[in-house]
Amino acid sequence: MAKTGRSHESGNPEGARLSVMTDPDSGAREALRLLGPDPGNWVPDQPGIDHNVVIVGGGQTGCAFAFALRRAGIGKVSVIDAAVDARTAGIWETTARMHVLRTPKSLPGPELGITALGFQSWYEARHGAEAYRAFERIPRQAWIDYLAWYRDFLGIAVRYSTRLNRIEPAESYFRLHLNTGIETARKIIIATGFDGSGGASVPQFLQALPRDLYAHTGDTIDFTALAGKDVAVIGGAASAFDAAAVALESGAKSVHLFARRPVLAATPINRSRGYPGAYDNYYALPDAVRWHQAIRYRRAGSTAPQDAIDRVLKHDNFHLHLAAPWLVAREEDGSIIAEVSEAAGCLAEGSLTYRFDFAIAGTGYAADPNLRPEFADFARHILLWRDRYRPPADEGDAFLGGHPYLGPGNEFMEKTPGAAPYLNDIHCFNPSGFVSFGVPVGDVPSMKRGHPMVTAAISRDLFLADFDNHQRRMTGDVPPDFGPELYAKAVWKNPHPR
Question: What CATH class has 202-266+303-363?
Answer without folding.
Answer: alpha beta
